Amino acid sequence: MESEREDFNLSGPLHLTFVDWSNAHHRRSVAASLVQAVYILERDRQLKRQHPIALAPPWWEFFHFKLLRKLVDDADHCIFGAIYEYRPPTPHGHQSLDASPRYVIAFRGTLTKPDSFARDIELDLHIIRNGLHETSRFEIAIQAVRNMVAAVGDSNVWLAGHSLGAAMAMLAGKTMAKNGTFIPAFLFNSPFFSAPIERIKDKRVKHGIRIAGSVITAGLAFASKRNYSSQQACSRSVADPFVALSSWVPCVFVNPGDPICSEYVGYFEHRKKMDEIGIGAIEKLATQNTLGGLLMSAMGRDSEPLHLIPSAVLAVNLSPAQDFKEAHGIHQWWRPDLQLQSNIYKYK
Predict the structure, then answer these.
(1) Listing from the earlier edge strand, what are the strands of the sheet with 157-162?
(2) How many Cα atoms within 13 Å fall on the side-chain side of residue 193?
(3) Whole-prediction pTM value?
(4) CB-based contact 91:20 (threshold 8 Å)
(5) Which Gene3D superfamilies match (predicted)?
(6) Closest among 189, 184, 211 to 264, alpha carbons compared
């Protein structure tokens, strides 16, 4: 069963015989397939599957990509990412290529296999404690992104990732955006570690809890900022980091049945509702902070929550999922019958 899910001819988006790069469904399906290819590259390595029995190549060759480089973790030597180059056949028309990438840098998520599981779980724990930026795997990833952007420009590069890999791609995108480089990103089931408020069925109770949480978080954040300002010998105007990031608008794909990523739905919707009832200023401050992050800052440890982003195209899969494995899986994102609801959220 597992090898069937790794076999492109059995599980891949064979319906995409022609990619229209202006079509959001096509872009999403290709990005997800390239992420899936990274999973299978690592499985090919673990199982010593080489040409002609390797299962990974069809996942990029079908869409006319070439594997340029594997990104290898220095701790356990597993493959966690890949850089692909788009090499289309001679086009019959240029309109379908206008929105295509030249390169895609993709990152896989956690693999529950002995050869890579321990290191992947270690990275997952770093996400929870907002310490992914301190890991050697991320250093390898961000250096690859910087080198590629320096060589070909940000408009020619896409980032893509799933689960742990989505967190890696998000952190890389945020890091580049802080320096004014905005890279298109496709983030599938990106972790949002929070109390599972989105699982509450009663909308009034859910909204009330979110308002209370926002008031508390904003109050603590305001007190923290005041304390910080009072310690400055020379007051200088410092740009709001969320404003600086707001021009970066990644595509965030979530499934409401997946508790790992579902809180993104409430995160963005709540910001909109707070604006509608006239207390958007409170949410503007709360949306940049978490209680855990503020607590860690108070203890002297600078901690920027990875999952908090100012802007996004949020795409929610409304198709029913049978279980968590399906709701969190990468395969859902290239289904032709996907029921997707998309909204653009821009931080103002």
Answers:
(1) 65-72, 79-86, 103-107, 157-162, 185-188, 251-254, 312-317, 340-345
(2) 15
(3) 0.86
(4) no
(5) alpha/beta hydrolase (3.40.50.1820)
(6) 189
Q: Which two tokens stand for residue 283?
A: 């949410």
Interval 115-171: pLDDT, tens: 899 999 999 999 988 899 999 999 999 999 999 999 999 889 999 999 999 999 999
Distance CA 229, CA 225 (A): 6
Model pLDDT for residues 285-297, shown as the tens digit of each residue? 556 665 455 455 5
Could you give the CA distance from residue 144 to residue 161 in angstroms, rounded to a whole number? 15
- State both tokens at 8: 């492109």
How far from the centroid of its chain's Cα atoms is residue 1's Cα? 27
Rg of the chain taking only CA atoms, in angstroms: 21
**140-144, 212-216, 227-231: least confidently modelled range:** 227-231
